[in-house]
Amino acid sequence: MVDRNTVSARRPAPSDPELLGLFCQLVEEYDRLGAAFPISVTSFELTPENYLDDTERWHRVVRAMALRKFVLGHQDHVRADKVLSALRNCLRDPADAVVLERWSDDFRSIGAKVQIDEGADARSSLTEVLEDLIYGSYLHGDLDRWKRTTSRWQASVDLALWMFSEDAEYYIRRLRTVVLVAAREGRLTDEATASVQREATSRPLTDRTQRG
User: Where is the stretch described as Disordered (predicted)?
Assistant: First the structure.
């Protein structure tokens, strides 16, 4: 049997410049995944009167699982708050970090701005509902999480799935754009610029922060 600590020790964290390049590449790959699993319904359209095609829901589930590493995975190197820290460390002029002041608060607000009424004065955040869904049924088989998911109204689960995914997508795309622009404008160290340069020159910046 393989020791879990040994496996963990084999995964050294990338350097800050490497992390910026990896993040940009993986967001690019996420966009390609999104193109393969398109969505046409926004969270604003999730009303009881609107019929929701089950295919649309499955596309959102796939996207949410792919987003996990950027927002939920505490041990994932490309979690957005770690990328923010790497970005600050790679700035040529520390004073430029002033433009990133609100980004940490924005990251913590993903999935926390709206709560789901669970009844009996109990409420859960969008993140909690989303984690129950993907860890209870898809990424893992957590019985307690699965029971909580199946006990909720489908409309509540859908709302959490949609709103969390939309917010997370928008955040990581904006953060990628900030990294790419900083590299393009010469605000990053040479090593960091070289790390993101391949992605930065592969396609224009237009439409990179759009939702959906």
Answer: 192-212
Task: Identify whether the C-beta of residue 164 lies closer than 8 Å to the C-beta of residue 69.
Answer: no
125 assigned to some structural domain: no
- With bands split at pLDDT 50, 70 and 90, how would you rate the model's confidence at 6? very low
Number of structural domains in the chain: 1
* C-alpha separations of 10 from 7, 15, 71, 92 in Å: 5, 15, 23, 31
Q: Which domain holds residue 174?
A: 14-111+165-200
Nearest to 83 by CA among 15, 170, 23: 23
pTM over 0.90: no
Task: Enumerate the β-bridge partners of residue 91.
Answer: 188
Please answer whether residues 33 and 63 qualify as being in contact, where contact means their C-beta atoms are separated by less than 8 angstroms.
yes
Structure tokens at 136: 């209870």
Residue 98 lies in a domain: yes
